[in-house]
Amino acid sequence: MADFETVARVDEIPDGGMKQVVYKGELVGLYRVGDDIYALGDLCTHEEAYLTEGDFDPDDLEVECPLHGSRFNVVDGSVRILPATKPEPTYSVKVEGDLVLVGPRRQP
Ligand code: FES
Prior knowledge:
Helix content is 0%, strand content 47%. By secondary structure, the protein is mainly β. It has a single domain (5-105), classed as Rieske Iron-sulfur Protein (3-layer Sandwich). The strands form 2 sheets. A 6-stranded antiparallel beta sheet has the order 1-10-9-4-3-2, with no helix packed on it. A 4-stranded antiparallel beta sheet has the order 5-6-7-8, with no helix packed on it. The radius of gyration is 13 Å and the shape is globular. The site of FE2/S2 (inorganic) cluster has 10 residues, from loops.
């Protein structure tokens, strides 16, 4: 619990939308699908671009990088479409009332 930080309110993230937040100095994207919220490293692993400035597809649970179109799964960070080859880190997420808390990375 100690490593979790409140980063946003649930109602700041539209259903099917995303929001960039900061967790311990790292830029993290929050993705909301109904009551579920996923947290993904926001800097593309390919070059310099923020995934939260791209397009989120809540049906496929994928975000598309605005720069070269790589797609990442927001649940496990895996690459779905090149040119990126390295997965994004994912973070633990908790919802307490109307607050969203982010915790440690779940993978490197
Ligand atoms: S910077 Fe994201 S795909 Fe190139």
